[in-house]
User: Fold these one by one.
Assistant:
Number 1:
Amino acid sequence: RKRIGILTSGGDCGGLNAVTRAVVRRARDYDMEVFGIKDATVGLMARPVEAELLDVKRVSGILRYGGTILGTVNKGNPFAFPMPDGSLADRSAEVIEGYHRLGLDALIGVGGDGSLAILRKLALQGNWNFVGVPKTIDNDVGATEYSVGFNTALSVAVEALDQLTYTAISHSRVMVMEVMGRDAGHIAISAGIAGGAHVILIPEIPYTLENVCKKIIDRKERGNNFSIVVVAEAVKTESGAPITYTNSLGQCLYGGIGQYIGNEIALRTGIETRVMILGHLQRGGTPSPLDRLLGAAFGVAAVDLIARGQFDCMVAWQNRRVVAVPLAEAVAQYRGVEVDGALVATAIGLNTYVGELDP
Ligand code: F6P
């Protein structure tokens, strides 16, 4: 029997368990055994290798759970692995050997662009048969229109905006909500439109605080007692400085630009303003139906690729189809928000301030 492995790597998100479940169910059709590897490449580094044989019973019902039953790590690059003494060590050889110790014929890695690039490097060096599945709330993986997890994060963000709007109206306030997205503004632009925001700031488009405030004051003058502002985490200050919060141990914690924008709005407009950082809520929760669908489609397609002997590729969603794209192509094409695309045009059409675009 063929033995295949599956691991989830990088930040968790909605829909990961739908991928795992689909892989196990599809593998049964080919009489393949599936090993769920614990905590991404850390499980392959462990001795004995930490992996669990997954059968259909084990994955029954998991598609509605948040997170990943396999566990994951976000800062575990085996080429620069953080050691207890604070140093970084190259432990890639141990990870590569872990695959062979498990006797795998192929591996499915579910990850974002960073994880997929690392897994590809391991696969090439270690002679692994590898298939990638794109997942990330940031939706920034190249060559696919959607990655698993984005839609769940979007749903959480829109629900939060709906709730913030009531309190904003009740108190005649400006509410600023900072969302995740790493270097891209996909969650911000989509949630901002769907949640009815009046200002949406994304890293792909520059802005001026003067025009952010003008928008809010114009609304007040027209009799609107509240405004909703959505800010993507990678937006910089008006002068271009990044804002990060670092603690006394030098660890960079999440969140910050929302406070800056909110404070500037409060000072410049005199309108009472409150800030909320949505943070890791976007990663968890019940996976949305669309993420379950995408996860299922990708899981089935990944096993089909293995059965056909097609490796070094990633499953992708393009034009309502699941296709296989070369992994090298996918990891090389970072995908931010298209400034001339439909979403930015829609926001402008709704008279939302999205920054300073060329006329
Ligand atoms: O890539 C997913 C993501 O949630 C980003 O949106 C965010 O910047 C980052 O991970 C947070 O990472 P961590 O969970 O390690 O704080």
Number 2:
Amino acid sequence: YKRVTTKSLVDMKKNGENIAMLTAYDYSMAKIVDGAGIDVILVGDSASNVMAGHETTLPITLDQMIYHATSVVRAINRALVVVDLPFGSYQSDPKEALRSAIRIMKESGGHAVKLEGGKEIKESLKRILHAGIPVMGHLGLTPQSIYKFGTYTVRAKEEAEAEKLKSDALLLERLGCFAIVLEKVPAKLAKEVAESISIPVIGIGAGNGVDGQVLVVHDMLGMTHEFNPRFLRRYADLHTEMTKAFEGYRDDVKSKSFPSDDEQY
Ligand code: KIV
Ligand code: NA
């Protein structure tokens, strides 16, 4: 396998090849995602929702993110592994931000970190980048700020927020980020941002004018039945498949048809 690097992602944008990114939080899933040729695996703080069952991404801790990231890194042959800095691990001050990023790099073996925000976290971004740690930005609907937004609806529909987003994207490029996630913003704005910078813009609910796409793996596999945003395309119906499997097993155990003669010693 030729490993994906932050540089190869920037080259992919140059060559017009879109980047395929998915989340993963554990070894077994990451092994399948990596084997399928997904370019970037994000150890997202969405683990707080899909793995731990929290309503928001705020509760997950740095230690928990490192546990997930360590499990993912053990499975990877090719993909670039990006790890979210969780809420509270980088907002207080730039030194703490760098310490958190260093812990992720040293303890998990991940290849890069992702932080939510633009201008507000400029000094933290600088410090982390100056330490040689690759950074992916994240703008638009940044879920760690959900209590500020008060809603999960599309961001930057108004002129002022769209202008700030555009200048934040330019700032992230100028500081040296290797890519930016743009979440839930109008497709026209996302395309404009992608065309204004040379680093890849990876969208989720940001239309088809960007340089790549990311989805939460449990969502695209159809494991999360209750979650139905417009941007989500389901590539499997694992909720139905898994329910069938569990019911089949339950029935076989109850009826004593499992194990059969061939399935015992
Ligand atoms: O945590 C996450 O899964 C993310 C993606 C949705 C971009 O940040
Ligand atoms: Na995230």
